[in-house]
Design brief:
mainly beta; 13-stranded antiparallel beta sheet; 23 strands; AttH-like fold; ten-stranded antiparallel beta sheet
Length: 362
């Protein structure tokens, strides 16, 4: 088993060392199932894995605070990738590999971890178990387990270094289907994914390290996405934002960056009651207001756009987005920036919190 895990790690390492770390997402995915309009997402079925598609993830972020009112952040992500389009097999013949990322943003710094696993041998997966179909997603002892067939309520436990994190997750609103009923177009050439979110999650739990314990509570956001070709050839990477606004609205916006600067913009404006409004490129204005140089690995630095101005044309509302602090880099096999952001309105008043992800920056 050790040799196969090393092989999985080596595969991701080769991708990371390449000049284009997102190349797999641009592959045409020939032989794999393709994303097409009109598919009806069904739950709880679509909470589970889709091995006929090339890539997939279960992506949780949480904005939390401790008893002193200090800001914390947590990220837990499980990735699945099919190495070939053949049907998934059990045992050592499985063509499925798994990777998990975890991170904790604390008042003292940002810490992260990653793990790899081979599918088919019980080391990682997403299944419904037991007579009542409990949702279960795991890699080794990192585990998300629900109390039923739905994703919530659930318990999530994982570690980052010596820190042990245990969370209770409860949905307080409906799921959101992104794009058009879950069909999320990513370019004019037709690249797309199936994509839904749960932006209404009440989170409570604790972080322990030795005899120290910190109780945390706040709100989370889950993204679920699967595809066989998520990016077009001329797309460099993406800038993604999930925001919990103080007035109860939720906002998700992403920008897929094109070589020619004519970027693809999309998002969802979500009311406190869960009603959604699709945002296209004409409804969104997004530009960076600060470029900063951060440490991005041993003896390496990287210039990143860490502050942004985001406006919604129809709502006549705008916000300034800035990181809790700059150094929230994920120095993982596929490197990226992911961390807590603070939101201010146009007058500079606190307006919310959220998460930002920046990928594809060399």
């Amino acid at each position: 088993m050790r040799l196969l895990i090393v092989a999985c790690a080596a595969l991701f390492a080769v991708v990371a060392q390449a000049q284009d770390v997102l190349g797999d997402l641009r592959d045409q995915g020939l032989g794999f199932a393709q994303v097409t309009p009109g598919k009806v997402l069904e739950f709880p079925r679509d909470h589970g894995a889709h091995p006929e598609y090339r890539i997939e993830w279960w992506y949780l972020t949480a904005n939390l605070s401790d008893s002193e009112g200090r800001q914390w952040g947590l990220q837990w992500t499980l990735f699945r990738q099919a190495l070939s389009p053949e049907p998934a097999a059990d045992g050592w013949q499985s063509n499925q590999i798994w990777m998990a990322h975890a991170a904790i943003t604390t008042p003292d710094g940002h810490f992260h971890a990653q793990r790899f696993a081979r599918g088919g041998i019980g080391q990682a997966g997403v299944t419904r178990i037991g007579r009542d179909g409990y949702f279960n997603a795991w890699l080794d002892d990192w585990q998300w387990r629900s109390n039923g067939a739905a994703l919530f309520p659930a318990e999530l436990s994982f570690t980052v270094g010596e820190r042990e994190i245990k969370l209770t997750l409860e949905a307080t609103g409906p799921l959101v289907k992104n794009g058009i009923n879950g069909y999320s177009q990513k370019s004019a050439q037709g690249q797309a994914s199936y994509y839904y979110s749960q932006p209404h999650i009440r989170v409570s739990g604790m972080v322990t390290q030795g005899s120290d314990r910190i109780d945390l509570k706040g709100q989370g956001w889950l993204d679920r996405e699967w595809s066989s070709q998520a990016l077009a050839e001329n797309q460099q990477g993406w800038d993604w934002f999930s925001l919990h606004l103080n007035d109860g609205h939720k906002l998700m916006v992403y920008q897929l960056r094109h070589d020619d600067g004519n970027h693809w913009l999309s998002g969802n404006w979500i009311s406190p009651g869960g009603e959604t409004r699709l945002l296209d490129r004409n409804a969104i204005k997004l530009h960076s207001t600060r470029i900063s140089t951060i440490a991005s690995g041993e003896k390496q630095t990287r210039d990143l756009p860490l502050e942004w101005q985001l406006s919604l044309v129809n709502q006549k509302r705008g916000w300034h987005i800035r990181p809790l602090y700059d150094q929230q880099w994920m120095d993982t096999s596929i490197p990226y920036w992911e961390g807590v952001v603070l939101v201010e309105d146009d007058l500079g008043n606190p307006a919310g919190v959220g998460y930002m992800e920046l990928t594809g920056y060399q």
